[in-house]
Fold this protein.
Amino acid sequence: METLCIEIPFDKEEFLESQKIKWAFLWRNEMTKMVAWLIAAIILIIAGLLLLKDGEPFNVFLFIGALFLLNAILTWQSRFFSHRNQVKQTKMLAEKYESMGLLCVYEFTDESLDYSDNEKHFNLNWDLFRYYTLYKGYLILFIGEFLIDIVMFKQEFIEEKALQYDKIHEFVKIKLKHRNL
């Protein structure tokens, strides 16, 4: 297969948008869990209140429901503070990349995906990637076992950029399995 080389100049607004999408994608499973904990807490607390008897010193349903509620609240609190910190760090990083005129170069070969910019270079063999998916207009490649390790390409509608995206998508389709998430 022919090597595909794509150069993408840094775009601050696109970077910030992609980080929002990444954040939402990574937290969607946690949000589902948090809602499940909250629903379970409400059911257990209602059951505990319905089964509450005078003089009973301890109601296991109320106790477990309170623990589930606490877990949901702590998960939400963690998400809130993590998001606030992530937004601040992302803005600082965007400013840095914009000031240095970052140029991202992706080279797709039969063996690997090479990435380089003004400060770093990565060579990622295709066997490091698990699969790819399409999510909210982004082509997302998953690296290794952790959802945090992803490479994202935005679907474009401007002719030149759309052609680049289509080439990347076709290359990735050959190399990786697709998974709907």
Summary: DSSP finds three helices and seven strands in the chain. The chain has a mean pLDDT of 87. Strands lie at 4-9, 103-108, 112-116, 121-125, 129-135, 138-143, 150-154.
